[in-house]
Design goal:
Low-confidence stretches: none
Strand content: under 5%
């Protein structure tokens, strides 16, 4: 009916039921919201920790590989054992580059496999340590910049 007002007692009943419902639902909503926020925060921390770990492993492997390859091929003469060791360390570096999961997109974006392979292949051909050192330094600098950007 037009113009009919709701009685004050009706508002009192609505207020009573709303207060009771909120006293039950309020804590549940709070717990759900808190859980959601905590879950997101934990996921962000896990991703950040995973990125750090993958970059750390990548830096360590590339540095170790660079050192071994420079020592092996820089000597001029390679025994069969040295050639085998060189190939193992080269494959270890490539596998480490390729098996990055959390930072895989960034590794592909900077074309790390191609740059690493080019540097190593060129060094095997010309055995120019200085050129290899410069190429390695550029690779590590670019990787470091990528790590800094992703971990911020």
């Amino acid at each position: 009916m037009p113009g009919k007002m709701i009685q004050p007692s009706t508002w009192q009943i609505v207020e009573d039921y709303t207060g009771k419902a909120w006293s039950v639902l309020g804590p549940l909503v709070g717990v759900a919201l808190g859980g959601y926020i905590a879950s997101r925060s934990q996921r962000r921390h896990w991703i950040l920790d995973s990125k750090r770990l993958e970059f750390k492993e990548l830096f360590a492997t590339l540095t170790r590989s660079y050192t071994v390859i420079a020592n092996l091929y820089g000597s001029g003469f390679l025994s069969l054992e040295d050639e085998r060791r060189g190939e193992e360390i080269r494959l270890e570096a490539l596998n480490t580059i390729r098996d990055r999961v959390v930072i895989g997109l960034e590794v592909r974006r900077i074309k790390l496999v191609e740059k690493w392979e080019h540097a190593v292949s060129q060094f095997e051909k010309d055995q120019d340590y200085r050129t290899f050192a410069v190429a390695f330094s550029k690779i590590m600098d670019e990787l470091r910049r990528s790590a800094e950007d992703l971990i911020k």
